[in-house]
Design a protein that fits this description.
The complex is a heterodimer of chains A (94) and B (210).
Chain A (H helix, E strand, L loop, with lengths): L4 E5 L2 H7 L3 E4 L14 H17 L5 E4 L9 H19 L1
Parallel strand pairs in A: 1-2, 2-3
Helix pairs in contact in A: 2-3
Chain B lengths: L25 H21 L2 H22 L21 E6 L3 E3 L15 E5 L7 E3 L7 H5 L7 H9 L5 E2 L2 E5 L6 H18 L4 E5 L2
Parallel strand pairs in B: 1-5, 1-6, 1-7
Antiparallel strand pairs in B: 2-4, 3-6
Helix pairs in contact in B: 1-2
Classes of the chains: A alpha/beta (94), B alpha/beta (210).
Chain lengths: 94, 210
């Protein structure tokens, strides 16, 4: 009985070679897997994506490439959109 | 001026992957620089700077592939796999990093050329000002300014408060990822951490790689 894990990494070629169970690939500089210092929204978005992979990745060795641009992404909007989708889904359940 | 001198790494990106372009043959360097010139002019004309970014990324991938091939090729026979057994909203989640994170009072990692396979225990209630970072192979100024870029504990705590994550493991773990002999890591310290996670009834693990 193992513990499911997901790895956030920027060295995609290495992930393709060693095949960790689940990899979220980010196109960020080495040393900043969750985003720039001070950018709490970026940290939150990447963390959410990583946790989502734990729930959704179905085949060992899955590598998902996050589409976010280093520095130029509007993470606050992404979070707002996600919150809106969630609220929408909750409304439909009622 | 030597061609390679043209490619001295800018101070703003001492650990960027593109620095390896200096190691190419002179012919390949000329190809890179010519392509860079053309792409820069095209991007300026069209306003599409993303194309220039992509150009650099394509070269970075080309440079990194042979490096990836030097690493341990097949660490395991088949990819380890465990399914998530509860929703994340009910799970105990541990946060791990290879970024050389440790806590004030603990010994720093050894950043000599032999590497360091040891790990540090990072308690959930570590005050932000007590985090320390040391590493050999990446620019640590980011996490020194904000530990969240390698270890987003604040955002994970926020997700717990919002009910999106069940709880955070009382003890989390950090390695320093410059490990030239991963076989030792796999034999000794990685199994120790796995056992500690198991004993702590951790349901899921997020690892930030640097």
């Amino acid at each position: 009985m193992g513990i499911p894990s997901v790895q956030v990494m920027m060295f995609k070629e290495l992930a393709e070679r060693t095949k960790p169970p689940r990899t979220l690939h980010v196109r960020f500089p080495f040393g900043r897997p969750f985003g720039e210092p001070g950018n709490q929204d970026a940290h939150r978005v990447i963390l959410q994506d990583a946790l989502r992979m734990l729930e959704t990745a179905s085949s060992p060795g899955a590598i998902v490439s996050a589409p976010y641009l280093w520095r130029r992404e509007d993470y606050a909007s992404i979070l707002k959109e996600r919150a809106a989708v969630k609220v929408g889904a909750e409304h439909r359940l009622r | 001026m030597e061609i390679k001198e043209l490619l001295n790494n800018p101070n703003t990106a001492p650990f960027s992957r593109i620095k390896y372009v200096r190691e190419l043959s002179e012919e390949e360097i000329v190809q890179f620089l010519n392509g860079l010139f053309l792409q820069t002019v095209e991007s300026k004309d069209s306003g599409d700077w993303e194309a220039l970014s992509s150009y650099l990324e394509q070269w970075e991938a080309k440079l990194m592939l042979p490096r990836a091939q030097r690493y341990i090729a097949k660490p395991y026979e088949s990819i380890p796999w465990a399914s998530l057994r509860k929703p994340i909203g009910e799970s105990r989640v541990a946060l791990l990093t290879t970024g050389g994170l440790y806590v004030e009072g603990q010994p720093p990692f050894n950043v000599g050329p032999e590497g360091d396979i040891s790990f540090r225990e990072i308690p959930i209630d570590t005050p932000l000002q007590d985090f320390r970072v040391i590493h050999r192979a990446y620019d640590t100024s980011g996490p020194k300014e904000d530990v969240g870029c390698i270890y987003p504990i604040q955002q994970l705590k926020q997700m717990v408060r919002e009910g999106l994550v069940g709880e955070i493991a009382p003890m989390n773990f950090a390695f320093m990822g410059y490990i030239p002999k991963p076989e030792e890591l796999m034999r000794e310290t990685a199994p120790q951490v796995a056992q500690l996670l198991k004993e702590a009834h951790v349901d899921a693990v997020v690892i930030g790689s640097t």
